[in-house]
From TrEMBL:
Pathways involved: Amino-acid biosynthesis
Broad class of enzyme this protein falls into: oxidoreductase
Domain 4Fe-4S ferredoxin-type, chain residue ranges per copy: 38-69
EC number: 1.4.1.-
UniProt-listed Gene3D superfamilies: Alpha-helical ferredoxin (1.10.1060.10), FAD/NAD(P)-binding domain (3.50.50.60)
The protein's name in its UniProt record: Glutamate synthase small subunit
InterPro entries assigned: 4Fe4S_Fe-S-bd, DPD_II, FAD/NAD-bd_sf, FAD/NAD-binding_dom, Glut_synth_ssu1, Glutamate_Synthase, Helical_ferredxn
GO biological process: glutamate biosynthetic process
UniProt keyword terms in alphabetical order: Amino-acid biosynthesis, Glutamate biosynthesis, Oxidoreductase
Amino acid sequence: MADPKGFMRHARREWPRRPVGERVKDWDEVYVPGGVLPFVEQQAERCMDCGVPFCHEACPLGNLVPEWNDLVSRADWHAAAERLHATNNFPEFTGRLCPAPCEAGCVLAINQPAVTIKNVEAAVADRVWADGLAPPRPPERLSGKSVGVVGSGPAGLAAAQQLTRAGHTVVVYERDDRPGGLLRYGIPAFKMEKAQLERRLAQLRAEGTRFRTSTAVGRDIGAARLRARHDAVVLAVGATAWRELPVPGRALAGVVQAMEYLPPANRVCEGDLDVSPLSAAGKHVVIVGGGDTGADCLGTAVREGAASVTQVDIRVLPPAERDEAVDPWPVYPTVHRVSPAHEEAGELRFAQDPDADARLFAASALRFSGDGAGRVRAVHLGGVDARRRPVPGAERTLRADLVLLALGFEGPEVAAGGAVAELGVAVTRDGTVARDEEYATDVPGVYAAGDAGRGQSLVVWAIAEGRAVAAAVDRHLMGATSLPSPVTASTRPLRA
Ligand SMILES: Cc1cc2nc3c(=O)[nH]c(=O)nc-3n(C[C@H](O)[C@H](O)[C@H](O)COP(=O)(O)OP(=O)(O)OC[C@H]3O[C@@H](n4cnc5c(N)ncnc54)[C@H](O)[C@@H]3O)c2cc1C
Ligand code: SF4
């Protein structure tokens, strides 16, 4: 700890965002490039180097937060980068995308604003690339074993990198035309530019990982061939089966799923399309679902030039600050968070209700109605209480030309012809791929990691599971492993 009084000297200061009016005109990341650098060393000095660092406990990766905070506060970027990569293959992803359970668990957060752990992580990660501190690390010798990884989201990529570096020949199969999973066609570029992904993919390729894109396991390559080709298989197919809203009017044109809407918008950023076929330009948009996917739809619709956007959340307005009786420190609390997309919609008055930041809480979509041509024109809402019981008299109608359903995901796709069904692995009652503590499914040599096994989760958990499944596969192939295994299949976030 460079300065034992750092937390008394310096107030928390976050990575500044670009002005709203500027950033909604492009798809670049919302943060000022390099904007955290002038004060990041002071921010790292706020870390108390706790004897029991709950930041570390709260992070599925077990990130060595106090160590890299100390190194950054001393401007030893090289050593900080080494410590950062000791536990995380892709810190530039988590430094941008993670909701930071580490900060919720930071000891300083008991009575002060937490250390800006996520900003420090992003700053170190960016410095790593700027200074060429992340060269490819190909293995010194090959094991002669081969692993097929199905799916190229953060879980598949982390598993592939760990296994390749351990000397195995790894082939990643991806049904999309480009690797990346939800980082590619789900998460918008204003949260993380695709260049971040490309850099890591180039590193993986240079280390020896091979990618077979536009190749769906089950459709383009059968399970028997896959298993015959490889000594082990890792299923990292994500939890992409979306939740439906079976209410009257669901079949109207213009009512689409968030993950039908976001991929073409991302393809515009990739240069594949000039305009998305589902563009919100000039439309009144209603997003049903109050989570992060809904917020990503909101930021996208604002950038596409929607006439108005409203996000409907069935939950009641959460408290502004942690309610200790419900979510005591150090658990991740339910609080009213204002994402950059909400900030934009609020400042630019994008909601139909001009007082709101685009969100309507305690509201449930009851039905959609359309015009004579079968196109959606309105969403009819009912009010609900905290236990989601109807509140009489709280009904309202919103104008809508485009309705985006962002209600979360059921689990992996399990229909016949998909990877899960064709490999014949058992599925739990929750709809996820069943596995033991070491990620092994009931089919010998087939493992499952990431959202496919955990259910809809976070990038940080996907990377942690990718690292852990690599250790399990390495042990299966070689009889022993020195790869780290930060979480088991049943590890869960800190709970009260
Ligand atoms: C819109 C959206 C925004 C999100 N934002 C955030 C965020 O800001 N922060 C955060 O931490 N988390 C976020 N998440 C969650 C996060 O993206 C996921 O938890 C994470 O990507 C899961 O990683 P994964 O590798 O398990 O699966 P995925 O990223 O879903 O990747 C699975 C891959 O498997 C491929 N695949 C499926 N079947 C086959 C097959 N048969 N053959 C070959 N390939 C196949 C898919 O095409 C896909 O590329 C978001 C999720 C969504 C939907
Ligand atoms: S809990 Fe907070 S103050 Fe303590 S070591 Fe972690 S980041 Fe530093």
